Amino acid sequence: MTLDLIDEATSSGARLAKACGVLGISARTVQRWRKHDGGADQRRGPAHQPQKAFSEQERQKVLKTVNSPELRNLSPKQIVPTLAANDEYIGSEATIYRILRQEDQLTHHQRSRSAQKRTKPRLVAHGPNEVWTWDITYLQTTVRGVFFYLYLVLDLWSRKIVGWTVEACESKELSSALILRACEELGVDPNSLTLHSDNGGPMKGSTMLVTLQRLGIAASFSRPQVSNDNPFSESLFRTLKYRPEYPNKPFDTLEQARAWVAGFVTWYNTCHLHSSIRFVTPDDRYFGREQDVLARRQATYEKARQRHPNRWSGPTRNWNPVGAVYLNPNTEEVCLEKIVG
Questions:
Q1: Domain 125-275, what architecture?
Q2: 58 Cβ neighbours under 8 A, 6+ residues apart
Q3: What is the pLDDT of residues 234-259, one digit of tens each?
Q4: Tens digits of per-residue pLDDT, 2-50?
Q5: What is the rounded distance in angstroms from the CA atom of residue 159 to the CA atom of residue 278?
Q6: The overall pTM is greater than 0.70
Q7: 131, 179, 251, 259: which has the fewest C-beta neighbours closer than 10 Å?
């Protein structure tokens, strides 16, 4: 796996030293692996057992104690203080949990529902209108405790704002109408689209879900009470509210808020050079113009290098278009993005 990641990165234009540095190894180590035994990862694990590790006798004492008739119905968090009250200590809660987990003795036996493991939503977009993310944020008004609500829909691959509205309330009906209007205006095939959002009422309301089902749009949701499963929309809101043009005073009317947001959307889509997509505008990437833009930059850099070759110790800046865009990538994808990027 390690060498596969390095090979993929170097074939995409990354330097071997940089690729190895991201993975915490040296280029010389990789060369030695490839020279011997066909390039297998020859790193070894720890040579000795940690000094703090429990002996087999101690492990058996823990198992015997927690499985005793007096304690077997208690959790380790209750067992440890119970034993301490009787002047006995067999290990910390974490140690007892680890031993029970290794012995497969953490099965849920209570009447209550067992804890549900929520899988982190992971989506990938290889082109426009494959994955949209959306969310709602507050806009302050001149009336204390009263807010306007900004709905923003973002295309994951291009970062283009494909739909927006400012309303006086949060509503699943308004949400479904916004998504429907965005699909119609852009001529998007709903059957090829995935819509990601958090777990708010407007996102998971019955009207919204029925609309998505009727259109054929696949719904994706963040994990409950996890704030960073929808990072692209959150980042967009931060860009919006930290713009120098963002009003210092709250909005007086709904029309005033809508007018300001309309200007922001125009700037963001057509003028903003987005750092995550090689500093092209979302519109350039969405409509397929980024190839020409980046090619011109590459040509400019090559000319500068030819004029002063002594000022360049390596290849010019990477102006290749960004490939697939991941929502919540796994560890291997994060490493590859750092290497190639």
A1: 2-Layer Sandwich (3.30)
A2: 90, 91
A3: 999 999 999 999 999 999 999 999 99
A4: 777 777 777 777 788 888 888 778 888 888 777 776 556 666 666 777 7
A5: 12
A6: no
A7: 259
